[in-house]
Amino acid sequence: MSIVLSAQHLNKYFYDPDKFQVLTDVSFNVQKGEFLSIVGKSGCGKSTLLYLLSTMDTEYEGQIEMAGTKLTGRGQDFLAHFRNEHLGFVFQFHFLLPEFSALQNVMLPGLKLGKYPEKEIEERAMEKLRLIGMDTYARKPASKLSGGQQQRVAIARALINDPTIIMGDEPTGNLDRANTENVFDIFRDLASKGQTIIAVTHDPDFAAGTNRTIEMSDGLIIGNHENKIQ
Amino acid sequence: MDIRIASQIARTHLLAKKRQTLVAMLGVTFGIAMFITMISFMQGVNQFLEDSALDASPHIRMYNEVNTQRPGLIEQLNPGKFNVIYHQKPKDEQSRIKNGMTIAERIERAPGVLGVSPQVATQAFYNNGPIQISGTISGVDIDRENRLYKLTTRLKSGNLNTLKTNPDGLIMGSVLAEKLNVRVGDKVTVTTPKGGIRTLRVVGTFGFGIGTVDNTKSFGNLSTVQEMLQRDPSYITDIHIKMFDPLQAIPFGKQLRAMYGYYTEDWAKANTAILAGEKIRNMLTYVVSITLLVVAGFGIYNIMNMTVINKIKDIAILKATGFEGRDIIAIFLLQAIFIGFTGGLLGLGIGFGLSYLLSITPFDAGGFISIKTFPVIFEPKYYIMGLLFGVVTTVLAGYFPSKKASQVDPVSILRG
């Protein structure tokens, strides 16, 4: 097993309204093919940590390395390209582009990467939608889908470029039990095929099903334990 | 590849809010349509004024400026001393151009010269019964003069050729003829300042549409006017020159002046007021048009700003999924360019329509000015300029909101 993500001594401050330390000396490594969950109470800094790992938030101290690339101190364009190629996101709230169809939403990051011709990207997008059970809604505009449906499309979008790491902020937050299990199984399956999943969650059952759980409180890692998989 | 996705997203955004897009477009359309209409009309007016001024006046007029200032003999011998001279009379200097005919022939052979007309011009009194009106009479070679001023097209009545067969013929300004109450065939007595009196027969009337010409001027035969002034057949006071290119006249005039030593006046100097008016009208056109476009630009700026604010979540998502700042700029700038370009094209169409309507609108100038409809010129140059203005304005107006969009921090939006 190789290390696909390494976070070293991360410190993060919020300055508004007062200086406040959100993360304190957070360090951990993630192995390739690992399904990792980050848990903790609201405000413990777990989402903040995820946004640092997502490379979108660049104001921190410490060092982040992913897929063998040091990401600390890189320019925005480099990071954008890196995200496009190596990272997939599922956000806390379903975030699709409302004017586009579900299929187009899934295709966009693929078109941006430009690794495959458009025809093939469309096929791949359909395949991802089928995986998540949304293929029948492919042509529907995103604004006409329910919250849960949008979230599932967002998951399909996160998968389109076969990213090295998939990150989710409450990826199943809007889903019912059956769909949560479905998404969970998909994540497990992807992890077993070598993709890495990092999910921030409130759900203890969800966390219990992952390979490893990092527990956070007040910006510190207070627990880091392997889960026994059934 | 990137531009294709950006344009796809831009198109979707534009189509999603058709009404807003249309309103933004109409702003540009209106600006450009007004620009086209105004500039076509203003340039038409300029062209018309310039044409009528240029048609009636030579490109270069060469004449002998009679210099009446003359230092006294004592003054010359005793400069700077206490000299007193009373009632010094000016020297009798003729306004003749020496060897005028030869000079005219030589100028005629120069390249770029359309025509040369040597002539004798003098003040005159026109008498018809009790009416006495002062004016000018030019003794000309009517064929040469016709070549310069297209007199045939300016004739209101009569015939140019009659002047050639009748040495005592006179072609008179139409307004002058009206004032004297004479028509073709009537006789007029003409008195020169030197006292020569001659009765001439009106064989034609002309109208240039310019008061100072139509009110005062007549054309007679060169030899007849020379006789009236009691001069010899080589007596020439003015040489009128027309060039193929009016702009060439200015350097050519200077050259002639240096060559022959006579005073030359080019059309630009003679029509300073018209040219100044032209500059002012141009200025006015550009100021108004640019104001309209700036207003349209602010409209687009506003709409694009609103779009960026409305789409801030989308921007955050696009950035999160790997779109770079320049992709975001492209998305929004393309929208602005589309609005500017289509709005501009529409504006060109409407501008053309308005100009065309104006150009067929009857304009009653009282039969005095030779014009029936508003003068409008259709010049592709202005259409290209209008479109360029429109696109540049919208690009500028769209750039700043796009720049702002590209600087959106996705984290602060996605965290909620």
UniProtKB/TrEMBL annotation, chain A:
Taxonomic source organism: Spirosoma fluviale
Keywords: ATP-binding, Lipoprotein, Nucleotide-binding, Transport
MF annotations from Gene Ontology: ATP binding; ATP hydrolysis activity; transmembrane transporter activity
Name of one Pfam family that matches: ABC_tran
PROSITE patterns, sorted: ABC_TRANSPORTER_1 (PS00211), ABC_TRANSPORTER_2 (PS50893)
Stored SUPFAM superfamilies: P-loop containing nucleoside triphosphate hydrolases (SSF52540)
Name by which UniProt lists this protein: Lipoprotein-releasing system ATP-binding protein
Record's GO cellular component terms: plasma membrane
Coiled-coil zones: none
From TrEMBL, chain B:
Domain MacB-like periplasmic core: 21-242
Residue span(s) of domain ABC3 transporter permease C-terminal: 287-409
GO BP terms, alphabetized: lipoprotein localization to outer membrane
Membrane topology: Multi-pass membrane protein
Subcellular location: Cell membrane
GO cellular component annotations of the record: plasma membrane protein complex
Similarity comment: Belongs to the ABC-4 integral membrane protein family. LolC/E subfamily.
Name under which the protein is recorded: Lipoprotein-releasing system permease protein
